[in-house]
């Protein structure tokens, strides 16, 4: 297949107007650099100072990169000599702590078993960031093992970083597993952060913390150098203060990587998609969300209609009865196979070299690793028979086809430009005894089908953010980017949002 990673998102970005944001965008930072009102070293130090002051209240950041100021100094020297390092010149970025980096910082996935996991290796996405001129600022907290340890976990908790707290109310949950990344952006600990998602772990924390985020299509962004959960669904994506910034970072991250086979077959359509004055928008049901979220959604749909768009109430008509049982089996199978491979190849100073050894480590360190919830998911994964490859392949084909067909059909049957839904309900109270309390989610079809899912921070319920999901059609990423921007402009921070 033809690889068209260089298309660019930049052609789509060119039509976006800069919008005033409470927090600094890439354009605003670059403007300040060019006006000599601040340099990269000063900005990076400002973020470090802000993190040191506020992070103890939120536990959003696990570690700061010791070379951050040195990176900034190098970029300032280039700028003085008239050289711009790339589209992310001097932009500090926080990484979820399951993404590997060169240097002295460990990549822990939140687990004490990986506290010495200093791989001194840049994940593919980190190489892309550095090549674009970004500054690696540090590592963000996360749900331990990307929230794949216990059925009763509290999102945003890890043994290494503690419980991450929601940026808008410290008593509420940040959602997982890219909790620290979303909270960090919301609190302006960095203008950009990377998260990872298997099913909802980018879009949910972005939604409940009120930031923009993109879960890319499968194969668009490499996962090499990232602690795995499931290669069938894992993705890496950006969080930011604007859709424009999210898209710019995505354009940097994407690309073919020989270490991730999915990227070698990915084709990004480069057709000329024109803006429309009136979209045909399919609105998925909101009955699984809280009553207040349903009311907000109804107001958002009304605002879109008043802006001249056609809104059609649609539903998924395909039978999804087997979807989530199949998904769980695939995740259990993938995790056992892939975490065993990952742990077996960690540096010698990491003692835990298998899933079985990890389970034993957690038992031996119960007071620090399992003070609130245990590890039933790890135990179930360990029990999976990896030799039953036929069952695995048949299940994988069935569940992916079902999810993909469900998305394609809702578009085709209703002749839609774009599909939307609430992302999740507002953040729940953190409960370390009973675990998470989700009320509705729009992540699974996109996660399983491997299609693009964007969340926009376009409303609040009782002061708590509720994101709006843009669910892309199969192989129609660019349309989703463009139409998400049109919807964002109707419901954007520059206008009075429904509340």
Automatic annotation (TrEMBL):
<feature type="domain" description="Amidase">
    <location>
        <begin position="43"/>
        <end position="478"/>
    </location>
</feature>
<dbReference type="InterPro" id="IPR023631">
    <property type="entry name" value="Amidase_dom"/>
</dbReference>
<protein>
    <submittedName>
        <fullName>Amidase family protein</fullName>
    </submittedName>
</protein>
<feature type="signal peptide">
    <location>
        <begin position="1"/>
        <end position="20"/>
    </location>
</feature>
<keyword id="KW-0732">Signal</keyword>
<dbReference type="InterPro" id="IPR036928">
    <property type="entry name" value="AS_sf"/>
</dbReference>
<dbReference type="Pfam" id="PF01425">
    <property type="entry name" value="Amidase"/>
</dbReference>
């Amino acid at each position: 297949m033809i690889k068209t990673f260089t298309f660019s998102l930049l052609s789509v970005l060119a039509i976006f107007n800069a919008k005033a944001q409470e927090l600094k965008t890439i354009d605003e930072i670059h403007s300040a650099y060019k006006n000599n009102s601040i340099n990269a070293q000063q900005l990076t130090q400002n973020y470090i100072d802000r993190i040191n002051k506020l992070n103890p209240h939120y536990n959003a950041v696990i570690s700061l990169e010791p070379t951050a100021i040195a990176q900034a100094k190098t970029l300032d020297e280039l700028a003085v000599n008239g050289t711009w390092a790339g589209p992310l010149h001097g932009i500090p970025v926080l990484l979820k702590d399951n993404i590997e980096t060169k240097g002295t910082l460990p990549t822990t996935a939140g687990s004490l078993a990986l506290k010495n996991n200093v791989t001194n290796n840049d994940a593919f996405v980190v190489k892309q960031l550095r090549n674009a001129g970004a500054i690696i600022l540090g590592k963000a907290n996360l749900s331990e093992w990307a929230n794949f340890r216990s059925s009763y976990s509290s999102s945003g908790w890890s043994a290494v970083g503690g419980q991450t707290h929601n940026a808008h109310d410290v008593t509420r949950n940040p959602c997982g597993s890219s909790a620290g990344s979303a909270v960090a952006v919301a609190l302006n600990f960095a203008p950009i952060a990377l998260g990872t998602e298997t099913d909802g772990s980018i879009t949910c924390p972005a939604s409940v913390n009120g930031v923009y985020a993109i879960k890319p299509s499968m194969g668009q962004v490499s996962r090499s150098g990232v602690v795995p959960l499931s290669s069938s669904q894992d993705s890496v994506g950006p969080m930011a203060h604007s859709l424009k910034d999210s898209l710019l970072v995505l354009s940097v991250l994407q690309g073919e990587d020989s270490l991730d086979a999915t990227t070698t077959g990915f084709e990004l359509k480069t057709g000329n998609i024109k803006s429309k004055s009136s979209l045909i928008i399919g609105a998925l049901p909101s009955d699984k969300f809280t009553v207040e979220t349903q009311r907000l959604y109804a107001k958002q749909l009304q605002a879109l209609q008043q802006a001249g768009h056609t809104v059609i109430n649609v539903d998924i008509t395909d039978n999804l009865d087997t979807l989530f049982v199949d998904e769980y089996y695939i995740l259990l199978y993938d995790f056992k196979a892939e975490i065993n491979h990952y742990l077996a190849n960690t540096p010698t100073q990491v003692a835990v070299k298998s899933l079985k050894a990890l389970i034993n480590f957690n038992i031996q360190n119960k007071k620090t690793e399992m003070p609130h919830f245990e590890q039933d998911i790890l135990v179930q994964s360990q029990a999976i028979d990896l030799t039953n490859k036929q069952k695995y392949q048949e299940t994988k084909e069935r569940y992916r086809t079902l999810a993909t067909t469900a998305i394609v059909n809702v578009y085709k049957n209703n002749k839609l430009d774009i599909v939307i839904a609430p992302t999740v309900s507002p953040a729940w109270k953190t409960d370390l005894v009973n675990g998470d309390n989700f009320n509705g989610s729009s992540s699974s079809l996109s996660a399983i089908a491997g299609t693009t899912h964007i969340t926009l921070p376009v409303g609040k319920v009782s002061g708590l953010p509720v994101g709006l999901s843009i669910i892309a059609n199969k192989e129609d990423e660019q349309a989703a980017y463009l139409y998400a921007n049109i919807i964002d402009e109707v419901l954007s921070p520059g206008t009075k949002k429904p509340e």
